[in-house]
Structure formats: structure tokens, C-alpha cells
Amino acid sequence: MPKDIRTPMQIITTTTGAIHEFLKKSPAQDVINWGRKNSLWFMTQPMGCCGVEMIAAGCSHYDTDRFGIIPRCSPRHADVMIISGYIVRKYFPALKRLYAQMPSPKWVICMGNCSISGGPFYRSYNTLQNIDEIFPVDVYITGCPPRPEALIQGFVELQKKIKAKTDKGTIYGVK
Amino acid sequence: MVNKHDVKKRMRQLAAEYIHEPQQEAYKLDDTEMMLHIGPQNPIQPGPFLIDLKISGETVRDSKLYMGYGHKGIEKILESMTYIQGLPVTDRICYLSSLSNNEAYVSSVERLLDIEPPERSQYIRVIMQELSRIQSHLLGTGEYATDLGFVTMFLFMIREREYVLGLIEDITGARITHCFPRFGGVRQDLPDGWREKAIDVLSMIHEKCEMYKELFSSDRTYKMRTVGIGTLTKEDVMKAGLTGPSLRATGIDYDVRKVYPTLVYPDIDFKVQTAENGDIFDRVMVRVNEIQESCWIIEQALDQIKPGPLFPDELPYGRRTPSMRVPPGDAYVPIEDPRGEMAMYIVSDGTDKPYRVKIRGPAFALMQGLPPMLENVYIADVPAIAASMDSCNSEVDR
Amino acid sequence: MDGTTVLDSLKSQFPDAVADALIDSQPPHIVCANVDKGRIVDVCSYLKDNLQFNRLSGITSVDFPEATKFEVVYMIASYDHSVVVKLKADVVRDESPSIDTVIPVWWNANWYEREVYEFMGICFDGHPEMTVLVLADDMMGEWPLRKDYQEFPQTTAKYPYSDDQESVVEEKYPLEWKSWPTERHYLE
Question: What's the CATH class of domain B74-397?
Fold first, then answer.
């Protein structure tokens, strides 16, 4: 697969973009990353059975609000897209639009077996597998469905990745 | 460096491709009208579907539903799996009430195999059905409350639901997709000490339901938004072929547990909950009353249950055989899902895999009956009406 | 109103159109009958008007390629009594199988018939809107639930489906990210 499909777009066309590229090489980026990782807002997109566990993780027993993670309905307000469920051919163009509507920096979490490799609907004529060849996925959470504690652990791993500057949502190393 | 005009041109091209051609032709819009898409990713239900509304000002003139954003092809998958392999797949038809799906599948196959589970298994299955009904109603009513903006009720109900899920998890081991009944019995018995814990949790839920009913009936803004809106008359409901709480809110007392009784429901004494008007307020009240009725059913079942075997002594095809062969024929056994009548029509040709499985879900009729209800209402009422029907998109799409 | 009354009344009213009528011995004691394809609307109207079967529970279809026929199955129930009737109609499996629609009798037959059409290819004459319900728009015409459908089961869990089929998938679902500008100075 050619490499360019896996990376999100980042074009330097404005002065702000140039300033951001300068800051990425300086120690100020650590402070910016600290702010970003402690308030990851995700888009509520329940596509399948894992969607119910995603909703339950945001509520009282397994509270995600204490990590700064709250659900938002609109993609324009969100940082993280959780692909929670099977991806169906009819929904796939809408999924690409939703990803394009999210403002950068944005991260993708694959939740559940269906988005990773098809799950129990592996043999179906209508589902797509291996979504990480289209979107740059940072964290894979296995399970059918994974428990809400597993989702919280997934978010914590994403926070560690952002702190270590190895996530795929921001492009480091601009020459 | 990249030319930013190329980028903008490409953005415009992508935006133009997004218009769905079949939908544009379907409507001829004049100067006062606008088409509003409540898109595939919607906050109304846990599951994607698309509603197109033709609005003029603030009122909706016409609406059209596009389903299919969650179609997995379960019916085709089940034809290529043996009967016991197909059981976890049936869990995932409607994930909000997965025990009812399992029960419908297992009942139909038991009808083909001509076996009947012993009494202790039947009581355990009844208890699981009612627990599944409680947690499904709590989640459905909570989602509906979010769509009105009443987020506090949603958080209360989810908190209660976690206790019920803890009870279910003690027996089956899973929170959502259980795969618990087996052909001729259930997978494992009730653990020790579960009965006392269940009675505590159920009495707590009974009290909380009283609090919910009082919260719903005493709030003036809530009543202005729900009383008299989205009304269905008895003729509408019978024309649309609905079953479940949406039917019982109009006054017709039709419950599959009384009309086609299976398992030990004839031995248990319960009342079918109905209401009078058929608007949004009544549908929600019927659901909350059903939660209390289910608590009462579980308490009776726990009193009547006696120790005994979980599987019958002689099974014709050996329950542990993965390649069990089922005699040819077809079977249809309806049961009461939290949303209505659920059944599976299974055709078998004598081999170890089903020949055709047709899943008859209750949410199909609920979704079909939605566009006629959305005529001449305000836009702000659309999520309230759609969510009060409590349908499940994955059951329509399968 | 019980199963035997319904059975006798159906047999006496339609002696030529209804064949092999019997009652299941086990609950829910379904009355099963085979109906001639051309008389289905008459039989259904009779059931609704005279015997109070006012709820259509579902319409489905089964494919029998060896016997070269489709079987369309109607499950009919009622809000007033507890008898269920199962009618089966045989449709010949040729280039354009078709049967009359029962929308004039029950309003909610609309979506059930659309679903049967898009999965099996059986056309319902007189239906106002024969389009896809659940499948994607470009899958109309593939009739996935027939026994000789070619693209099932999908055995390679890859997107695109296999290495040499890359171009086929791109025609249907173009990967726009490939058309972004190719200067890659900002990557390692």
C-alpha cells in the first residue's frame, strides 16, 4: 500500500501553520501536548454493539469525565473518532466525510473486533475489514464488546502516545 | 509548497459529490421549502440511519427514512454456520436486548428438535428475559430523555442499569452479548447467594421507578412537550402492525406473553400495562410501569423455582455435539421482546446447518410507522417522537 | 375462534386455491396452507374481512434452486384472537419472478415486500416503490440471499479484498487521499 494514504493532511499555507511547525521543534510543544492529551473530546458515533459500551463508559460507574474526556455529537467539536462497530459499505462514504469534517489534530481509536478485522461478521458480503488501511489508527481495543474499563485504558494509552510524541494525529519532523 | 487554490477546488469537488442523487429527485422543493438531513450519524438512537425532512418554516411537511447503514447480512451468515455456531451471531441482532434474540432462536430450534427444557431451566430463562427487559427499558427511556434535553434522567437510569447488568453478569458472565440459553436448557445454574442480592437490587429499582414517575409527571415543561404530541390512535396502530409498548399505550392489551404463552408464563401472575391516549407521555409511562411489573415477575419466579436438572435426560441428538442434525421442517415461535413480538422462522433440510433463517424483529414495524407520524409537527418534536418509539436500528438492518 | 374453525372455513371457501391445509400439533398451533399464486389477494382479503386477521406479521421468501421455485411465506396473525396462519405461495424461478402485492389488504406489507425484492429478486406487481431498503444503492440487482450468489463467503480479511483486485474496489469507492498532492517534503 502506498504510504500517503495513511497520514492525515497537513499543508502549510498560512502563517499560523508556519508558527505551529516552528513550535513543534521547541519545548513549548510539550506544554501544548499536555493540554491536548488531558481534554480529548470524542464523537459519539455508535455504529454497533460496542457503541452501547461507549455510552456506558461515559456515564456514572465508569466515568470518563475525570480524565477530561466528554462526548460531543458533532464532528466539528471533536478530537477523537471512535470507530465502534462494524463498517458497512453503505455507511463508509459517510464515515470518510465525518473524518474529513473533524479539525486537526485528530486521532482515531478502533474499538471492538469488528473494526479491527471484521469480528463475527468476517464472512459477510457487506462489511469491510481492516479499516486501518484507510484511517491512521492509534489505538486498537480488542473485545467483543470490550468492557468500559478497556476503553478507558485505551484512552490512557493514547494519552501516553501523545506525551511521547509518537501518535499519528500530529506530524512531527517537518524539514 | 502546495497551491492552496488546488486544495480549495478539491474541497468543492468533494462537497458536490456528497449530494445523494436519489434523494434530490424524490423531492421537488419550491421556494418556501428546505430539505434537512438528520444524517447517518445521529444522536437519536444508538445506531445510524438517515431521515430526510422536507420542512417549510418550522413545520415538517414530509419525511423519508433511509435504512441500511448497519446491514451485516446475518441471515446469509447463519446459513453457513452450524446451529450452535449461529447462537453468538444471533446475540448481535439487537444488542440492547440480546437475551430475547437468543431465546427466539433457541425456541424455534427446540420446536424442530421436539424437545422441551425441564422446569428449572424454564424458570431461569424467564428470569433472564425479565432482567433483559428491565435493562433495555432503562436504556431506551434514558436515550429518549437525552433527546429532550433531560440529561439528568439519562444519568439516573444508566446508574440503575449498571446494578441490573451486575446481576446478569453474575449468571452469564457478560454485560451485553450473553449467548446464554442452549438447546434443551441453559448454560449454567444460578450461583449461590444470588437470590438475596437480586431481591435487594429489585426492591431498589422498584422505589426508583416511583421516583421516575413522579419526576415525569410533575415537570411542567416536560408535559408541555410530550402530552398530546405524537399521538397514535387505535386504528393507526393496527394499520401499522405495531406490537409492544407502543401498541399498549393506545389501550389495546396485546402481549405475546399472554397470547402465545411459552415457558412458565402461565404459572406466573402479572398484569399487562396499558395507557389511554397513545402520545409520547403514555408510551414512556407504559415502559416505566413494565419495569415494575418485571420486578414482580422475577420475585414470583424466585419463590416458585425448585431444584432440579438443567437438561432433559435423553436428548435425541446429544447436546454437546457441534454437528447436531435437525429434522427437516420449519418452525416459528413468537416471544415478547422489550420492543414487541420477536420470532425467527427457521427452515431446515435435515443437515447440520439451517437452510434459511428469517428474523422477524419488532423494530421493523416501528420504523415503518415513523414517517406518517412526522407530518405537521415542529422540528423540535422530531427527535422526541423518534426516540419515544424506542426502536433499534440494527434490528431493522440485520 | 380457534384453528379448526379457520381451517374448515378456508377449505370450504377456496377449495381450488388452497391445498395441503393442516394444523401444527405443537403450540402456537399454526394453520399452514399452500395457496395458488394468482389468488393470494383474494385469500388474504377473506382472512382479514371475515375472520378478523388484521395483523400481518411478516413476509419472507425461501429459495429452492433444485426444484426451480421460490416460496413466498406470509405469517398472518390477529389482535383479537390467537390463531396464526402461515400461507405459502410458489413462484417459478425464471428471469423475472413476480407475484401480486398485498398492500391493499394490509398497509404494513410495504417494507416487507421491498426487502424480499432486494434480496431475492421477486417483483411485486402493483407496489408503489420498488427500491432498495437495506442494501446499498449499487447492490440492487445482485440478489444476495439466493443460493448461487457468488461473492459470499468472503474469505480474505483484507481491504481491498485481495492484492490483484485493488483496482475494482477503487472504481466503486475511490480513495480520495491518493489524489492529494504528491510533494511529500514534510514526511520522513
Answer: mainly alpha
User: What's the burial of B301, exposed, middle or buried (CB within 10 Å: 0-12/13-18/19+)?
Assistant: buried
Test C186 with A128 for CB contact under 8 angstroms: no
Interface check B366 vs C, CB under 8 A = no
The residue whose grid cell reads 429459495 is C63
* Min Cα–Cα distance to chain A from B51, Å: 14
DSSP lists the bridge partners of residue A111 as A84, A141
Domain total in chain C:
1
Do B241 and C131 lie within an 8 Å CB cutoff?
A: no
pLDDT the model gives residue B44: 80
Q: CA of B155 to nearest chain C CA: how many angstroms apart? A: 33
User: Of A51, A94, A145, which has the smallest distance from its Cβ to B40's Cβ?
Assistant: A94
Distance CA B169, CA B161 (A): 12
C-beta atoms surrounding C172 within 10 Å: 9
Name which of A77-86, B164-173, B290-299, C26-35 the model is least confident about: C26-35
Give per-residue burial for B68-87: e unless 16+ CB within 10 Å, then b: bbbbbbbbbbbbebbbbebb
Nearest CA in chain C to B64: C133
Contacts of B174 (CB under 8 A, 6+ apart): B168
Mean pLDDT of chain C: 77
> Quick check: is C182 in a domain?
no
Separation between Cα atoms, residue B362 and residue B342, nearest integer Å: 6
CB contact under 8 A, A53 and B155: no
Chain C contact set for A133 (CB, 8 A): 159
Nearest-angstrom CA–CA distance, C34 and C88? 5
**Distance from the A12 Cα atom to the nearest Cα atom in chain B, whole angstroms:** 7
DSSP codes joined into one string, C148-161? T-TT-S-----SSS
Q: Which residue would you say has higher pLDDT here, C23 or A66?
A: A66
Counting residues of chain B whose pLDDT is more than 90, the rounded percentage is: 28
Cβ(A122)–Cβ(A129) under 8 Å?
yes
Judged against a pLDDT cut of 80, whether residue C93 lies above it is answered with yes
Contact (CB<8Å) A173/C139: no
Residues sharing a CB contact under 8 Å with residue B352, sequence separation 6 or more, in sequence order: B82, B83, B323, B324, B325, B326
> So where are chain B's domains?
74-397
User: In this predicted structure, what is the pLDDT of residue B26?
Assistant: 52
Q: What is the pLDDT of residue C179?
A: 33
Do the bridges between strand B34-38 and strand C18-23 make them parallel or antiparallel, or are there none, so unpaired?
Answer: unpaired
CATH code, domain carrying C159: 3.30.460.80
Give the domain range for residue C98.
Answer: 3-172
The whole-angstrom separation of Cα B169 and Cα B92 is: 17
Peptide bond into C97 cis (omega under 30): no
Which set of grid coordinates corresponds to residue A110? 478502533
Residue C177 lies in a domain: no
Query: Inter-chain contact C173–A92, Cβ cutoff 8 Å?
Result: yes
ipTM above 0.90, yes or no: no
Q: What are the CA-CA distances from residue A15 to residues A12, A20, A22 (Å)?
A: 8, 9, 11
A-chain CB neighbours of B7 within 8 Å are 11, 13
The pLDDT value recorded for residue B203 is 93
CB contact under 8 A, C86 and B332: yes
User: What does the alpha-carbon distance between residue A156 and residue B315 come to, in Å, rounded to a whole number?
Assistant: 50
Identify whether C179 is part of a domain. no
Q: How many CA atoms lie within 13 A of B240 on its CB side?
A: 23
In-domain check, residue C135: yes
Q: List, in sequence order, the alpha helices (H) in chain B.
A: 4-17, 21-26, 74-78, 87-91, 98-113, 119-148, 151-172, 194-218, 220-226, 234-240, 245-248, 256-259, 280-304, 363-368, 370-373, 382-388, 393-397
- Cβ distance A171 to C152 less than 8 Å, yes or no, reads no
Residues B226-258 have pLDDT tens digits of 888 888 888 888 888 888 898 999 988 889 888
Q: State how far residue B300 is from chain C, nearest Cα, in angstroms.
A: 25
